Amino acid sequence: MADTSSNDAFVEFERVQKSYDGEILVVKDLNLQIPKGEFLTMLGPSGSGKTTCLMMLAGFETATHGEIKLDGRPINNIPPHKRGIGMVFQNYALFPHMTINENLSFPLEVRKIGKSDREAKVKRALDMVEMGDFGGRRPAQLSGGQQQRIALARALVFEPELVLMDEPLGALDKQLREKMQFEITDLAHRLGITVVYVTHDQTEALTMSDRVAVFDDGRIQQIAPPDELYESPQNSFVAQFIGENNTLEGTVKELSEGLALVQLDDGEMVDCMPVNVSKVGERTKVSIRPERVEFQKERLKEGAHMLKATVKEFIYMGDVFRTRLSVAGNDDFIIKSRNAPDQVRLKPGQQIEIGWLHEDCRALDA
Amino acid sequence: MSDLKSTGPQAAAAPPPAGEPGGPVLAADGTPLKRSLNRALRRQKLRALMLIAPLLLFVLLTFIAPIADMLFRSVENQIVSETLPETVVVLHSWDSESGEAPAEPVFDAFYVDLFLAQEQKLHTRLGSRLNYEKTGMSSLFRKSGRRVGKFDTDIYTDQLIALDPSWKDPATWVAMMADSGDRAALPFTARTWDRWVAYLATEGDDPAKTKIEDVLFTTLYLDLRATNGSGASDARITQAAQAAAGFETVSLRDQFADADKNWMDPEVWGTIKAFSPRYTPGYFLNSVDMQKTPHGIETRPENQQIYMMLFKRTIFMSLVITLSCVMLGYPVAWILANLPTRTANLLMILVLLPFWTSLLVRTSAWKVMLQQQGVINDTLVWLGIVDDADRLVMINNQFGTIVAMTHILLPFMILPLYSVMQTIQPTYLRAAKSLGATNWTAFWRVYFPQSVPGIGAGSILVFILSIGYYITPEIVGGTTGTFISNRIAYHISSSLNWGLGAALGAILLAAVMLLYWAYDKVVGIDNVKLG
């Protein structure tokens, strides 16, 4: 795990645990440092504890054990309204009985900011999300995307240094979501704010974040920048959860620095990068991304191990071809190839041989 | 692979049929689209109507019709003009400000009317009706009804029979009254005869065999004096007309004065005149402590004013009850809305429990609790907070009514509040807090405004229910805690002054509608949510 020195951490979770019923730990021993200005995403399936972590940071849940620090100051006993953290909710939580202007000036009013100052700040925040003309409307009169922008503006209008976002784009359609993803990251970097973003959408996590913390079972499974997360998953959960992934099960036969020879369950041998395996004879899950699989031998290195495969299904997806193969007893082995003029279209039933660079094939925990 | 891009779109489909620009839009078969839409919807509408028809009929028969009847009764006043048709006409020209009782012709007409009314036993009903407007009228009518048959009008009978004994024979009267010339010569007699015959018909008697009453001889004499019998074909009439000038007469005015001197009181006649129209605002005036007198509309004397006070009290107490329901119900609804569903459902049973208990039992229970030898007083005395000598009076007054009714109507406040609060997501409060609001500010500025529709719905429900409440104030209200509805019930079942009861009810209905309208104007009925 990336271990940032705790001195420059803006937000810090220190051995935080959380249980709702005294029997099951929802969050188990969470340690996390977030430097100032970082866009950190907590990614994980539902029930993985990511939202609980966010709520503890916001102050709506108390940590059962451990300490949460904000700018070096423990905040466990500070009520939410004194933490000065901006928050964007999944359903936006715009106050339906107030106009957009009233919604935005609410955090300023409770901070006793003068009227003229307030108006200027509200206007600036609305302009920032390009909603300057909508101040007099009510939330119900806006579309989902517009409400989302207002929610964002409201979380930013009182100039917090830390903004939390709880699956803010979940209710939007795909196109709008992609547009908003860009706008949010752009805004966050422009303002230099620290953002903790919770989502279960891995594409969102990969495209938006500086770093992604993958949650499962109350723990951070891996915390890394998106490219590292995708290309070098540390365990089979992360490999499976992030992006599409092929898994083959086998046993480690040979192990050396940077290379492992794995015998698959049907007897075939493959070259792998050892990540989570420590000794010969250990069970392992071999993980390989669909787009890194090659079926044209001339593109591979001399001496690479090849596997026999049978084409089961060919799916035309426009920009890529997706082919389902049967490999070493696994009928769901997927390969992706770019739709180029010279690309080969495989036919169902065709017998081929596949292979890969051993760096792309990772031997992970079983 | 190369044919990928060449597959262009097929030939564009023909544009959908549409009417000429500006003209009506046409359906596929050429009929206007509106008409074919209506036809398509008619079956659905008809089916929907059929489905609600039983309820519609039920509501119409058992709800709308009685209300319409009640509203009609509050202005209906046909009893005077139907019982005293002759009197009402003649009385019209009498000036009620003259300070004197009307002249002879009124008494002549009244004699006929009263005689026929007492034959049909209608005069006591009229007396009761007029007694609502002026005390003493009831006994005046009853007493005069007994006397009217014994008036000295038999002298006309005797003199006419002496002139021609055939007057005694009812059959000759039947023949005479069938002749249009004779009828024209004797208009008053003809009208009276018709009423007499109609009455005999209801009794099953034959006019040709029933003794001719003095009243008919009286009208005959009066007609003979007025028209001289000109145009009559019956020779007896001409003969009688000549003789009538010399008849001995009797003053009906004196006869009535003799029967009861109150008949000389112009106020009595003024009241009859004031209430002779078929429709009257009298009941409504009574309902607001005013009255219609011969001299116009006046407020009632101070010591007879009761209804305005009752209306004010009803509205005031309903407001107090509504307010206490809000104060007590809001926290309960809040807790219910914020508990886990399972617990909330369990507690909801406690809220609904009173619904499953008889209203009378609940009200009587409060009697047990609140009376001077009751549970609360006993406890307070036992604790030494209250001295045994002056135990608190908490029942049979306003306090008792307010306590009992707040308890009974509380579920009607909690239920709409609860269902509205359930729709307020907890994230609103969280959002407010994350924006820097304290718990109180978050509640007051974010949660409370969103719960106002529930308060509105609950308040309207409780207020309208309590403004017309009857049983509880009747049992625990005593004299100071009764509502206008108790007075209405009194008029419907005890005093039998249905017109006044109806007018009070109509005013109550109007007041509720007015408040509803005002609420709509101020808060907006769209803001009322029952769930």
Describe the structure.
- The complex is a heterodimer of chains A (366) and B (531).
- Chain A has eight helices and 19 strands.
- Chain A is elongated, with a radius of gyration of 24 Å.
- Chain A has helices at residues 50-58, 100-109, 115-128, 144-156, 174-191, 202-208, 226-231, 236-241, and strands at residues 9-19, 25-35, 39-43, 65-70, 73-74, 86-88, 162-166, 194-199, 211-216, 219-224, 246-256, 259-264, 269-274, 283-288, 307-316, 320-327, 330-338, 351-354, 361-364.
- The longest helix of chain A has 18 residues, at 174-191.
- In chain A, helix 2 crosses helix 3 (115-128) and helix 3 (115-128) packs across helix 4 (144-156).
- In chain A, strand 9 (211-216) and strand 10 form a beta hairpin.
- With 366 residues, chain A is an alpha+beta fold.
- The two termini of chain A are 20 Å apart.
- Chain A folds into two domains: 6-236, Rossmann fold (3-Layer(aba) Sandwich), CATH 3.40.50; 244-364, Beta Barrel (OB fold (Dihydrolipoamide Acetyltransferase, E2P)).
- In chain A, the strands form four sheets. In chain A, strands 6-7-8-3-9-10 form a six-stranded mixed beta sheet, with helices on both faces.
- With 531 residues, chain B is mostly helical.
- Among the domains of chain B are: 28-73, no CATH class; 154-244, no CATH class; 307-527, MetI-like (MetI-like fold).
- Chain B is built from 26 helices and two strands.
- Chain B has a two-stranded antiparallel sheet.
- In chain B, helix 17 (307-338) packs across helix 23 (439-467) and helix 22 (426-434) runs antiparallel to helix 23.
- The longest helix of chain B has 41 residues, at 33-73.
- Chain B is elongated and about 110 Å long.
- The two termini of chain B are 60 Å apart.
- The model of chain B is unreliable at 1-19 (pLDDT under 50).
- Chains A and B meet through loops of A and helix 22 and helix 23 of B.
